[in-house]
Specification:
Helix content is about 70%, strand content about 0%. With about 475 residues, it is an all-alpha fold. It has one domain. Helix 6 packs parallel to helix 9 and helix 10 packs across helix 12.
Length: about 475
């Protein structure tokens, strides 16, 4: 068996075999689309490009896809006719389907399968994965008992657990991917920089005006969270590992966070930074770097795009009003009202909630129960057990993230993943991102896999035995 395993691994490592597999996967994907009736040429292009890239850089392809593609459906009419094109960039990944399965799910499944075949086994800490899977199984059984078809329960209500689990598999084996140590940090810098530059151009040229006259470049909260986590990772990186590339990531990340203008993400970034400062032995240096980077970013924004300064002030004012319970902003007031209504409903039925089909508090244009808070939404739909599982998952993710941030042998991508796991629970206080989106559970799964793999490595990490080049990338290690 061991001999056959070695032969299979050797065969897989041959470029010709990898290319042949990519062609085969692409052909199967094209056939599935033709049979399932894919809606647009963009759907076909995205699926084929994803299949072709996965064979060489599985984790990088998936992370890049989740950064670039925005989970906002233009069919909902958000933003008006003059809205920024970045609002809906790559939305087909989430909303176009093949046999009722999203393109993201198909690419993520292919990526996870290929990662399991082509990389060496690892032993990550499995706590977050196990809780997510238990939550998914619980929801599936809950919906089945409630009368839903089993396939419908899995593909709709428990899909987040599938996406999280597949993302976890990709993330925990990322360091075994070809070129991960060399290309991961540069790829992150390139993608964020491109998004930031295009966003700045659209804002400065007035192409980000929504139908209400508000400038909107990025609206999906995951975009701000991903970029904010990258900026915090660069700011808190050990001095020996921080170079010009890390500063590029910090700058691009901060620009995207400002352009996203998502107040829940801004508040979550502040909380994540506070936690990082509490566990870091270099608090003073991190604060100094943060103040310097923020000052440069704000000054550049005011000089290059004067109107951006006033928008930042308005957003900060709304956040402060929300903390004081005096929100005048209609959006903030509506969110707080939803949470208040949801809490009163929980008080009236704390054990069972009101069931998954509650109709008195619904999402716009749909029939699903939607409360702007992940814990309350799960509590109301799936009872107290649902709320307990959500909290347990968040506690495990935060605990593992803190453990990674306390280590000195972490690289930039490790810290990015840890920061994203710290940002997520705070952001979810304002919306059920985990169970009602696809982008959030997928990217959180990848981040949890990266963190779990880092914590699961026994003994001294090789990162502490070799000099680390600028940007947080680690040098290639000799083969055994």
């Amino acid at each position: 068996m061991r001999l056959h395993g070695r032969r299979l691994q050797t065969l897989i490592e041959l470029p010709l075999a990898q290319a042949a597999l990519a062609v085969a996967v692409s052909a199967v994907a094209a056939g599935a689309i033709a049979h399932g009736g894919g809606r647009t040429p963009v759907t076909i292009a995205l699926l084929l490009a994803g299949a072709a890239a996965v064979w060489r850089w599985p984790a990088l392809t998936l992370i890049g896809l989740l950064i670039v593609c925005q989970e906002l459906d233009p069919a909902q009419g958000f933003g008006g006719p003059g809205a920024s094109g970045l609002l809906f960039l790559g939305h087909q990944v989430f909303f176009d389907t093949v046999s009722r399965t999203s393109i993201l799910t198909l690419i993520l499944a292919a990526t996870a399968a290929w990662t399991l075949i082509a990389t060496k086994p690892v032993r990550p800490l499995p706590g977050a994965l196990l809780i997510a899977l238990v939550f998914g199984v619980y929801i599936t059984v809950f919906m089945w008992v409630d009368g839903s078809a089993l396939s419908s329960a899995i593909n709709q209500n428990a899909l987040f657990a599938v996406l999280f689990g597949l993302g976890f598999l990709v993330g925990c084996r990322a360091t075994g991917n070809f070129g991960w140590r060399t290309y991961a940090a540069p790829a992150l810098a390139a993608i964020l920089s491109a998004m930031a530059l295009v966003g700045l151009y659209l804002y400065a040229s007035g192409q980000g005006q929504s139908g209400t006259g508000t400038s909107v470049i990025f609206y999906d909260s995951a975009m701000g969270a991903i970029a904010g986590a990258a900026a915090l990772a660069g700011l808190t990186l050990e001095r020996a590992r921080r170079g010009r590339l890390a500063w590029v990531i910090v700058g691009a990340g901060l620009v995207i966070v400002v352009l996203a203008a998502r107040r829940n993400v801004w508040a979550a970034i502040v909380v994540a930074l506070a936690v990082a400062l509490l566990v870091s032995p270099q608090r003073g240096r991190i604060v100094a770097r943060l103040l310097g980077a923020a000052a440069v970013a704000v000054l550049a924004a005011v000089v290059l795009v004067p109107s951006l300064g006033s928008q930042i002030g308005d957003q900060l004012s709304a956040i402060w009003e929300a903390t004081q319970g005096t929100a005048a902003d209609a959006s903030v007031h509506g969110h707080l009202s939803d949470i208040s209504i949801g809490w009163h409903a929980v008080e009236s039925s704390p054990l069972t909630g009101i069931g998954p089909h509650g109709q008195w508090l619904v999402n716009e244009g749909g029939g699903q129960l939607y409360v702007h808070n992940q814990i309350l939404e799960s509590w109301l739909r799936f009872g107290l057990i649902g709320a307990v599982l959500v909290v347990a998952l968040q506690v495990v993710l935060v605990a593992q993230a803190v453990r990674v941030l306390r280590r000195t042998d972490t690289d930039l991508l490790d810290r990015w993943a840890a920061m994203l796991l710290l940002i997520a629970p705070v952001a979810m206080l304002t919306a059920p991102f985990l169970t009602q989106t696809e982008r959030w559970p997928a990217i959180l799964g990848v981040a949890a896999g990266l963190v779990g793999a880092r914590l699961g490595r026994a003994g001294t990490s090789s990162a502490s035995l070799h000099p680390v080049p600028a940007g947080g990338a680690q040098p290639p290690q000799p083969r055994a």
